[in-house]
Amino acid sequence: VQLQASGGGTVQAGGSLRLSCVTSGDRIIIMGWYRQAPGDQREFVASITSYDAAVYADSVKGRFTISRDKAKNTMHLQMDNLTPEDTAVYYCNAHQVGLQLSEYWGQGTQVTVSS
What we know:
Elements: E1 3-6, E2 9-12, E3 17-23, E4 28-36, E5 43-49, E6 54-56, E7 64-69, E8 74-79, E9 88-96, E10 102-105, E11 109-114
Parallel strand pairs: 2-11
Antiparallel strand pairs: 1-3, 3-8, 4-5, 4-9, 5-6, 7-8, 9-10, 9-11
């Protein structure tokens, strides 16, 4: 399974960005986004199941929206009302069901929010 993330960039506070993650795999039961700021541990941002059940970190609730286009094997993260605290490298993540549950990570995409 390969994951390809895109959509990062630099935006002013209050602005918006839309991240996308394309996966090559099937039997993906859950996809998600994590982020890591310099000096911090990687943290959970949002996830969505194959049944479109979404979960968000408290810090992004009401500002970020995760969605999934199963026909295109693509996941999106719409990020609105961005703050400098959202600055981080964002990673997409996927879990594939098979004989065992396997986890995959994409390369990161940088999001920078200036004040």
